[in-house]
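Tutorial handout. Part one gives the primary structure; part two gives the three-dimensional structure as tokens.
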Amino acid sequence: MKTDIPLQDVQVTDPEVLRAQKNTINYLLSLDPQRFLYGFEQVAGLTPTAAKPYGGWERFDGHNFRGHFFGHYLSALAQSLDVAKDDVTRSKLLAKLETSITGLHHAQQAYAKIKPQSAGYISAFREVALDEVEGKVIPDKEKENVIVPWYDLHKILAGLIASYQHLQAYNRGMANMALAVADQFGNYVYHRVSQLADPKQLLKVEYGGMNDALYQLFQLTGDERHLVAATHFDELDLFQALAAGQDVLPGKHANTTIPKLIGALRRYEIFSDSKLADQYLDETAQAQLLMYLQAAENFWQIVVADHTYVTGGNSQSEHFHQAGALYHDAFMADGATTCETCNTYNMLKLSRELFKITGAKQYLDYYDRTYTNAILGSQNPETGMMTYFQPMAAGYQKVFNRPFDEFWCCTGTGIESFTKLGDSYYFIEDDVLYISGYFSNQVILPEPNLRLNMVVDRAKGNIDVKVCQLTPQATAQPLDLKFRQPDWCVGKPTLKRNGIQEDVEDASDFITMPQVVAGERLTLHFPMALTFSATKDNSQYIALRYGPYALAGVLDDYQLAADRPNGILVRIATLNPASINTLTSPDTWEQWLPAAKTTYQLAAQTDGYLLQIKLPGIAEHINFVPYYQVFKRRYGLYFQWQQAGSQAAQQRTAKLAQVQKYRQRVVGELTNFDQNNWEFSQRLEAKGSQVGSFKGRRFRQVRANGYFSYIFDVTKAKAPMDLILTFNQADDFKAIEVTLGANSDYAYHVVLDAAKADNVSADGFFTYKISLPADLYEAKANLLLRFVSDQNASARLFGILLLNPASD
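Part two.
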């Protein structure tokens, strides 16, 4: 099995990557850990040290994710200790991390005194939030307003573990304190989950990577309680379905799902040690181990093959949808909400672990593509702030977080990503060093007593590696080097060893250079060329790639500061409908494509861009540049190719006009029933209700005598407005009661009967229309929709749409 090179042994020297790292370290230093500790101290009965807490997702009023960002902050601070360029900066980072860990330790100890039965609990919210997740009935006045409590707690536990791992070289006592807090929290989790009446209830609300973190904690402590606790967060039904090759992803919340598979892989990785497996697992559990690996491998393959864009990002509106429907998701749906950056972060974690276990190069190729484009492209190079979504369609701009009053999930994963930028450039196994990341850097290898200095010309695919002796007084040992041959390499690569040409197999996954010793110099060239990537649901909806770089067409600067609300306190991009979104040629597709691959114009290092490309034979004037470098401009990654005047182009234009007209009619809509960001943004209230997925779509259902409700903004409503509900014929003859207005002014008893619908889809979905009385919404800002059941569970609701009448 391959192992990591410690982060502190890899020094990034690429100027752009180094700037991104510095931006993030400066941001970490601008934050006050005491303000994050406010809630932890308050819950523990202590007087908060800070005058006030932070707001945004860390707020106390309104639905929130309180505590989540502080966990990311711990991890990022810990990683920063290994990459900080100078002792002064490192000492400042260390002081903030010490304040954070000491504060958590004091809060945990204080809580144990006032609630000894819950010793070990450490959180910015009360335990009642966990009670509600477990299905216990909580009076409204006692409830917490935290949406996904276990998700938030996972970040804290992961941050404590990262702190322990990285603090070893800087403050061993503080490292041990971090582990002690994590250890006691792990014990608390064990006692809590061991008493669950229905363990599966725990898995119905997003819980982040709790299984992964608890498995890591078990590795550190050897405490079997932590192992048992981890297994409670393993979703075996999901793992078994994926291991069997079933695509069960449509309808699933993407960033809820990916960490589950990271945890599954962690279990397999730990118990690949047969002695450990014999000690802790029975025969049945050992026989089941391979299933965890197969689940992770199959999941990765499904995501990359059917849900991934040219940048390596995935998802739309935080969810996986139908396989291969990227054109629909990026262009026909809300293109501002493609590619949640958190998903990118987690897919990279999964990919690097899969490579370490399997050695398969495909994981490194994906890592390279996604790191280069989706990660580096997620940061504003001037401010260091980060994206939530990354639009793939043309006409959008990047929207970055504000530093002190938002604290999105993607900001949290972002500060982690940009403080571990060199963690996957190298891997080692015995006397073999695998080289994967082609960015200028220096790596030290204490055991063979070597240092590698790599200088990369990223615009030309040239790599220069000098091998030096690390410590002159000690003997240096030879080392085999394996250079990843990138999937973007077009043609045969070249390699020179000390100026002498070496034979290279152009079909090999890795270029092997055996017995490299100090004093040698290796130079490689990976040829690059323009390639095109099309979506499966539209073969002429294309993106460009040159070498490792996804290329964005640079468009206009129309209203770059504009954004719009989405979810809980999230801001997303706006679309300029006048932006170019087509590539129009007088030739046929069959004529244009091969010509474009050979006659494009390439210019390097212009206007601050690494390179620029112009396409031949198109009417639009667009410069294509590396996506990761684009900001302060609207852009497009995917464009619709069309032949000028063709029938297909005319039909597409007409269809798009229809879609735009329809979008203008939409007053409010909800299809992502996720017990998360999307529903709570519509002010979800629920009792005796549950969410799930069926035939690739999400639903919410009322159990006996339960209800759920939403509040929609109806300021755009025009009479006569319709309420359109989506159901499935599998629920025929079930009922649901719909009431509207603050005082339930109007009530509708809906009994499903698909036979009476004229729009039943192939998979059984159909709509039910209610024409709403004008006094419900005219001159009003909001409309309350409430759904109720009788003594039986209601029909499942798959969609809510408020639709204005069609204009003439």
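Part three, for discussion. The two ends are 66 Å apart (CA to CA). Residues 299 and 701 are 28 Å apart (CA to CA).
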